[in-house]
Amino acid sequence: MNLGTLGLIGSAAGGVEKLRTRLVEPAMDRGWRVAVTLTPTAGTWLDATGERQRIEQATGLPCRVNPRMPGETSPHPPIDCYLVCPASANTVAKLALGLSDNQALTTVCEAIGARQVPVVAFPRINAAHTRQPAWNGHIEALHRAGVHLLMDDDYWPLHEPRTAPGKDLPWKKILDALENITKFGSSESV
Ligand SMILES: Cc1cc2nc3c(=O)[nH]c(=O)nc-3n(C[C@H](O)[C@H](O)[C@H](O)COP(=O)(O)O)c2cc1C
């Protein structure tokens, strides 16, 4: 089955080290073509382990971190659905405010405003992030903009900082949600 092209944005949060094995390759097995963009910090992390190169080998596309030069064309094909996963608290806040100071944010901020394809995000956060005074406003802004946030207890029960080392992301539920959203325009638990 051909599900189209998934624009996968990874930021510097737990689980990004497993992006290829738990999200990119399973998404490709389900029928997505996957184009990956990383925030600069996530890019540094995955460069250090060789994962960025392995993502490129798996997807057959450049794993973007830096913006293109003005005279260059985009190295990624047109995107049918964006998934920001894992989304750090920092990346969530910047998306809500429309801050586009790296390639990953530039891409998703434009998609949020364009409203042509679904934008889905899995905030990989802890309870302290949600008590930051600006957090609720960011989440409301993203909801109002039509972003599908996968963040109730079914997806990610909150933990206090440094109390859940190795807590795994609900990879399969995230991939299932993507299919629901792209097929039916909604997800049962967003
Ligand atoms: C080892 C490590 C793990 C981290 N895990 C998380 C996380 O799970 N969620 C989060 O919001 N921030 C986490 N952070 C903090 C972010 O990496 C930091 O806020 C960074 O500036 C995010 O940048 P980005 O959003 O541009 O990728 C972690 C930092 C380190 C060093």
UniProtKB/TrEMBL annotation:
Protein's name in the database: Flavoprotein
Pfam families in UniProt: Flavoprotein
InterPro entries assigned to the protein according to its UniProt record, in alphabetical order: Flavin_trans-like, Flavoprotein
Source organism (scientific name): Saccharopolyspora mangrovi
Residue span, Flavoprotein domain: 8-131
Organism placement in taxonomy: Bacteria, Bacillati, Actinomycetota, Actinomycetes, Pseudonocardiales
